[in-house]
Design goal:
Layout: E1 5-12, E2 16-24, E3 29-38, E4 42-44, E5 47-49, H1 52-67, E6 73-79, E7 85-88, E8 94-95, H2 109-116, H3 119-126, H4 135-145, H5 147-152, E9 155-158, H6 159-168, E10 173-174, H7 175-178, E11 184-185, E12 190-191, H8 193-198, E13 209-210, E14 214-218, H9 221-227, E15 233-236, H10 241-247, E16 257-261, E17 264-271, H11 278-283, E18 286-289, E19 295-302, H12 305-317, H13 323-331, H14 353-363, H15 371-398, E20 404-408, H16 415-425, E21 428-431, H17 436-448, H18 455-465, E22 469-471
Parallel strand pairs: 1-6, 6-15, 10-13, 16-20, 20-21
Antiparallel strand pairs: 1-2, 2-3, 4-5, 7-8, 7-9, 11-12, 14-15, 16-17, 17-19, 18-19, 21-22
Helix pairs in contact: 10-17, 12-15, 13-15, 15-16, 17-18
Protein name: Rhamnulokinase
Domain Carbohydrate kinase FGGY C-terminal: 258-448
GO molecular function: ATP binding; glycerol kinase activity; rhamnulokinase activity
Length: 474
């Protein structure tokens, strides 16, 4: 390849976002961060919202920076978190503001839905882990709590679909992100219209369902004028960030598990067909859509969100600390046996995470963690114990022995977390690359524009381009 191919990958996480420029020279990929910004949800009254228009502003700021480089950019794509959405009226305007999945308006809705359609029946179709913030429960809550917005809506767009609509004027629903919400038939890989009707919800809001690797269109004139970026194709990749993270994972061995480690921990396996068995239902595993026809059989585990909030609270009330400071304090902690359940509802969106961790340990007869290190160890132990259980149950559900865990995402920069994961699970841990979501985003763009032929080829390129570190259990 004589001329490099340049692509832009927007990766919106639940706590931060960034725009990455990718350069592919025919054998390796190089990444350059162009723009980074925080993703700060806003609490207004009792509700918790995404600052959607500010995020779109940051997106355009990134495009301006990319345009200033004066290089031929072929395409761009966006991946975000799952389940959340915006509603568009008949004039094409966003109605209200997308609600953050950590908002508590859906507490108790699972039980209400169960009375209408038994949860076992819901799972038999959708194959999705029951979590109170799933789109199905948010949609049900909107009908009750935001009826004006619900009734005036004309189109339903998941978050990456919404941002791409702002850029291109095109409305669609991308499969991998849509699959996170518990509204799709897992086998048919399309909206479960019968389920939606049984719940008394609208079926007329959904758009065309498109698959990862589809070219959506080009930037509208207003965006071109504002940013100076021209001739760029907008592509729908695996627009759920975990779908892109798994696509960007160069699996070490057959039947290896993946662990996408960031604000959330997503631990699972890439398989060909959904698993809708009694065991997967009882263990509450999820079957989300992947790229190239794959299914991501996984467990959603509350992740480094807990540690991020511990750091924030410690900085507010004690002293300024960095994540390396937390790791050092954890290694030096006198007691290392404190442990929390990271999936306890109290850790979803508390006002003070530090106090909640301490209270949990005391209420569960462990005593009081003293100092930063002991509090942090309670979080580390909670996360890695959940990883251990999740891996064991995956082996039961699939009937396969998992030889190793491929960890990707920002969490792998925490060497202690990698070590503790290997020790807790008893599995070899292969950490890297850090930018799993970005790389999965990029390789699907490269496939869409014809630069590579398959995801398998893309993963080989990723492995040749980025370092991986092995952690063995001790």
């Amino acid at each position: 390849m004589n001329t490099p191919i340049y692509n832009l990958a927007f990766d919106f996480g639940a706590s931060s976002g960034r725009l990455i420029l990718s350069k592919y020279d025919g054998s390796k990929i190089e990444l350059e961060e162009i723009h980074r910004f925080t993703n700060d949800p806003v609490r207004i009254g009792k509700n918790f919202y995404w600052d959607t228009f500010r995020l779109y502003h940051e997106l355009k700021t990134g495009l301006k920076k990319a345009a200033s480089k004066k290089i031929p950019i072929t395409s761009l794509a966006i991946d975000t978190w799952g389940v959340d959405y915006g509603l568009i009226d008949k004039d094409g305007n966003l109605i209200g503001n997308p609600v953050n999945y950590r908002d508590d308006r859906t507490i108790g809705v699972i039980e209400e839905v169960d009375k209408i359609v038994p949860l076992k029946e819901v799972y038999a179709s959708t194959g999705i882990q029951f979590m109170n913030f799933n789109t199905i429960f948010q949609f049900y809550a909107d009908k009750k709590m935001r009826p004006d917005i619900y009734e005036k809506a004309d189109k339903f767009l998941m978050m990456p679909d919404l941002f791409n609509y702002f850029l291109t004027g095109k409305m669609y629903n991308e499969y991998t992100n849509a699959s996170t919400g518990q509204l799709l038939d897992a086998k048919e890989r399309f909206w479960d219209l019968d389920l939606i009707k049984k719940l008394g919800l609208r079926t007329d809001l959904f758009c065309e369902m498109i698959k990862p690797g589809s070219i959506v269109g080009e930037l509208i004139d207003e965006v071109v004028k504002e940013t100076g970026l021209t001739g760029v194709k907008v592509i729908a990749v695996g627009s759920h960030d975990t779908a892109s993270a798994v696509a960007g994972t160069p699996f070490e061995e057959e039947n290896a598990a993946f662990l996408s480690c960031g604000t959330w921990s997503l631990l699972g396996m890439e398989i060909d067909e959904p698993v809708l068995t009694e065991e997967s239902y009882q263990y509450n595993y999820t079957n989300e859509g992947g790229v190239e026809g794959k299914i991501r059989l996984l467990k959603n585990i509350n992740g480094l969100w807990i540690m991020q909030n511990l750091r924030r609270n410690w900085c507010e009330f004690e002293a300024e600390v960095s994540f390396p400071d937390i790791i050092k304090a954890s290694r030096e902690a006198k007691r290392k046996d404190f442990i929390i359940d990271p999936n306890d509802q109290r850790f979803t969106a508390p006002y003070n995470m530090m106090n909640e961790v301490i209270a949990y340990c005391e209420e569960n007869g462990q005593g009081k963690p003293e100092g930063l290190g002991e509090i942090a160890m309670a979080i580390y132990n909670g996360l890695t114990n959940e990883y251990k259980t999740t891996v064991k149950n995956l082996e039961v559900i699939t009937g396969k022995s998992i030889p190793c865990i491929n960890m990707v995402g920002g969490g792998i920069q925490d060497q202690l977390l990698c070590e503790l994961t290997a020790n807790a699970t008893g599995k070899k841990v292969v950490a890297g690359p850090i930018e799993g979501s970005v790389l999965g985003n990029v390789v699907m763009q490269l496939k869409a524009v014809g630069a590579i032929s398959s995801l398998e080829e893309g993963r080989k390129i990723i492995k040749a381009s980025f370092e991986q570190k092995v952690h063995m259990p001790s």
